[in-house]
Amino acid sequence: MKCHILDRDEIKKIKKIIKNLDIDLIYIADSLGCCLPEDIEFIVKELKSQFNFKIGIHAHDNKGLALANTLAAIKSGATYLDSTMLGMGRGAGNTKTEELISLINSTNKIEDYEPIARFVEEFQRPLKIKKSWGSSVYYNISSSLKLHPTFVQEMTTDSKFKSYEILNFIKTLSSSQKDIFSESIYEEITNPYKEVKHNQWSPKELLKKKEVLLVGSGPSLNLHKSAILRYINKFNPYVISLNFNKIIKSHFIDAFISSYLVSLLPHLSEINYNQKPIIIPSIDVFNNEDIENKENIYQYGLHVNKSKFEIKNFYCSLPSSIVFPYSLATCIAGEVKKITLCGVDGFEQGDKRHLEHKEISALFIEHNKDIIIESLLPCNLGFKVNSVYNYV
Prior knowledge:
Structural class: alpha/beta
Low-confidence stretches: none
Helix content: 25-40%
Mean pLDDT: 86
Oligomer: single chain
Order of helices and strands: HEHEHEHHHHHHHEHHEEHEEEEEHEHEE
Distance between the termini: 65 Å
Largest sheet: 8 strands, parallel
Strand content: 5-15%
Number of strands: 14
Shape: elongated
């Protein structure tokens, strides 16, 4: 396993361990998919020069080099070759059988490929779509940093994480060179809000008795943008953008809120141009070194606990770190007069994110009776919908 560590000194150690063992075959596995063809060639040649047993190669495709590495192993004397149809395997997958056969099949008769092609189209391709293995930019980057691919696999199969969150997760993880997967490490980085942090800022200082309009980026906002802008101009609500909104221009926004500061980093210069307030749970989570001016950052604490729902003066306890429920909790803690929503459409019924969002929304509907929450645009999360056109 992790054959990228096999330099001459490591191979000498192997020789001492196995010289008295009766071994017929030894496999090298590029577990992190980080080897180059020249690395595989060196390892196989070194092993072949000192041992008589047969050698096998198990290559992962994190860098898109699984086939090239397998061919390098063949060239250097390996005779056992691992491959799978369409590269089926953990994360980025493995050497593709259909590609390997076309290069090592001496006859190359067209009819030899008919059962392979039929199997791939009928069974393997639908399975790949369902299970989502295959190379990606995230696997490529993580392999360069010698990170275990299961970390990336866990994040990329969880649809709640966006690209910037995955990349910052990789960046955070790389500082400790985690080449062994650990559930506890994964949980620690993806859920930094396990403990209650009693920040000394209350949303009441910013929001008390205001009518707040929470602006998401759902498709309905693009369709009804002009009506929402008329609503803003007519009623002058305190407009809070969930993360950065590319549909509504920043001069219509009064504040930005995010459960992860990293989601706002690419847009900080625009946000800071007018010193817009930024509300986040903690400045310590991801990339705090990128913040030059912290005067406009307000920290309302977040504690993520699957079985707890509590909104306090300086922090909230929620079952998720999703920005939408965090923004609702911030408004309720701020004792706002009314909360209106737009661009918070929800997801398709079959999307697993829909159930998570709807369950959390139900908690706010059940536990909050004092503050009106209604959506001005279509929303399937259980909140009252009152069309924006009734107002404008």
